[in-house]
Amino acid sequence: MAASLFLSGCWDRREINDVAFVVATAIDKAGPRYRVMVQIPLPGQMGTLGQSGGGGTSGTKTFYVDSAVGDTIREANSELQLAMSRRMSFAHMRVLLIGEDLARVGISPVIDVNARIPQNRLTAFMLVVKGQGGSVLNADAPMERYPAEMIRELAGTQTMKNPRRIRDVLHALISDGLDPVLPAISVVKTEPEGEHDAVSTIRVAGYAVFRGDRLAGYLEGGAAEGLLWAMNQAKNPVITVKPPKGEGKITIQFPQTDASLRVRMRQGQPVYSLRIRATGAVIENESNYDLAAGENMEVIERTAKRVIEQEVYQALAALQHRFHADPIGYGDALHRQQYAVWRKLRTHWDEVYTKVHTVVDAEVQVENTGNVREPMGIPRKELTE
Amino acid sequence: MNKTTRLRPLTRRQDPASASRSPEDDPGKTPQQHASQAQAPSGQGQEAERGAWEERPLAPRLSENEAALRELFCDCSDVVFRKVRVPDTEWLIVYIDGLVKTDDLHMHALYPLLFEDPEHPDVVRSLDTVLQMGLSVSQVLEVHTLGEAVERILSAHAVLLMDGQTKGLALNIVNTNRRQVAEPLSETVIRGPREGFTEVLRTNTALLRQRIRTPNLKMVPFTIGTQTRTQVVLAYIEGLADKKVIAEVTQRLKNIRLDAVLESGYLEELLRDSPRSPFPQMQYSERPDTVAAQLLEGRFAVFTDGTPFVLTGPITFWQMLQSSEDYYEQFWMSNAIRWLRFGFFLIALLLPAFYIATITYHQDMIPTSLVLTVAAARETIPFPALIEALIMEISFEALREASIRLPRTVGQAVSILGALVIGQAAVQAGIVSAPMVIVVALTGIASFTIPKFNAAITIRMLRFPLMLLAAVLGLFGIVLGVFWIAVHLCSLRSFGVPYLAGVAPYRPGELKDILVRAPWWHMDARPWSYAKANRRRMPDGLRPSPRR
């Protein structure tokens, strides 16, 4: 046992103050090489102790951003290290950002380094940045202590039920009949009253759809919502419907959603049926439509059902015809459910995919109208039945 | 009225096994029992020195005896010789001032001797008649040799010698004016008896006897210490305690040849199975209820005169994390508190080591925001984590030690200095980081949650090697250290009982008083590890329910 003390291999004692914790890496294309930008919070500037009032000295940022170019990501990191007095540690890297240009030429090469070294966590969130990947790392993002934290929180709370992590991308890349999809973010200016008060911040701007490992395009708005519905990744989706009678609109939120994809064979062709179940609540009714009256709730549910189905069809159209990408896993579903057919179709699946038909059936249930049933603030006699 | 115990002549030389008896023999015991429980001979050197006069029988002439005693007790200003002259004969009373209750001596010995009863004028003329009719003292022993007489005198008897007689009487008129039975200071409880042991052996055994009223509660006397002649009593319950264990502890007690026993700790170190282990192998307690409970589980207790701390054994590791109150409070609460102790036991042992290991090796394991907070706090600290931890831990230990030793009034000042200087100023000056202060404080509190002080000290000590291992090898070092401790614990025995009994070796039945504290109606069996003779505590089916 005494011997085992000395046989333990490398001695890697490092004081916490000799470590630079990389919290985000952004990788961009720089000609044929890579530009790697890292974000490192500066603990000394974060004002936790002894400094009254907290929040670092005004004018100094609480984080540090630097970038370097290299043939590989590791090489770029080594370049970066030459300008850092503290050893970079990637164990706390929570977000991996891919610049748009790099995404278009393929993300497979950059994933390797994240899977190869155990220090790197495959649970880090992966996002595509519209424009230069590094741009978001220099945003003000005053809501969190450093932009990487903001991106992490955005990815975790504002995107999908299961936010995309590096391992999900790996899974999609390796699987037959499944393409990756990643949330896209971009830097925007806030819109406070005065122009000069505006700061830059980061927002989720749709979803980057990949075909293989290459960026095929972005889905935004209703189509993006439709994609999430179809992937069963919609997180607290909100839809706004126009009631059949009266004026104004009603907004419904669906905390419980579920989607299942079945594939059946009809006349030798796979036909998909996508069943969506959603249970939600009316969160705003600015119309004069009386939800309490008669069958009106059922009417609204049917309207919502159509809206959801519409969004999904919109997404499917884009995916099948514009991007030729399969983030929902149509191929994967066929593979699992109709293996014999899949074996026949797999060689020319890409062509088949663009032609398959999908029947979307949403089952909407609105259980709750909040604290009130009739629209508030509208006299009863003005309500439409 | 008067009860007498006839002592047989001392036969120390011929038969060491039946040498001198403790003066406080239970009157009800048979001579056979005395013979079997007698005490071992003392060190040979002292033996030769004392032997010359010890064996000498009392001379028929009082003056001869008096001269011998005066010579032995020369320059002993506290020994009182009182000669009483009555018609036809002379009496000599020898006792040690302060040890004997003089009021009682006057009333019950001197008075009857000096003022003869007109109805029985001859009473005082013979030792036997005095013994039978003249003395109103309940416990009187006969002494036959000089050695016996001296031993009685030294153990707070008044010895009565009569001219013309080759025996004397030892009157048990012990001055009981000592510290009163008070609340035990080292083991306080919220619910439970408030009585604690005192320094007087007889008071202590009486406190125990009050709780266990069965003739099966045996109290075997020993005299240990060639100089101090300290009275020691081995108590156990016949029929519950393992006979082999009792034989073993009797043998070990007989083998002790210390010259002095001033506290039960002297005995503890000589009774242990593994003398070098840092872990306590006997438990001590100031609480009669705790000792009673231990005896009822088949353990034994060793009372030592002059200390309120009674040793019990055999013990297991789990006892270190149990308090007597566990058994008095309702079981849900006891369980919660027991688990709290388990948790804080681990904290007390491992937290500083774990902190050092994670912040110097395994920063990956800490959540990002926490690692940044810790890094921020450590930004200005000039020392590596280990040095910082050692500074804080050692100052904490010093602080604790200082506050124990100092008089209570000064103790306040220490805590103020400690809290202010070490706690606050050191952090503000940037010499130690706030997280480290939190770790040390938490560790300190955790070690105080261990109910047994000796176990807490062990844990506190073991934490330092673990910290060093953590600083050198990280988590790997902690694992090594814990592994070593675990191996050591598994190999420990307390009077033949495995230290981790119940868990290793695994005995599912005992877990209900280790991992949890089962309700009393469920604890129908005694722990198998010690109470081998009689496992059942009570019949089944005692759980209260509306209808049976």
Automatic annotation (TrEMBL), chain B:
Keywords from UniProt, A to Z, are: Membrane, Transmembrane, Transmembrane helix
* Cellular component terms per the entry's GO annotation: membrane
- Residue ranges spanning the membrane: these are 339-361, 432-450, 462-487
Q: Which domain of life is it from?
A: Bacteria
Q: Signal peptide location in the record?
A: none
Biased composition, class Low complexity, residue ranges: 31-46
A Pfam family per the record: GerA
- Report residue spans for region: Disordered: 1-53
Q: Spans of biased composition, class Basic residues?
A: 1-11
Query: Among the record's GO biological process terms, what is one?
Result: spore germination
Q: State the similarity comment.
A: Belongs to the GerABKA family.
* Protein's UniProt name: Membrane protein YfkQ
Tell me which species this is from.
Answer: Alicyclobacillus cellulosilyticus
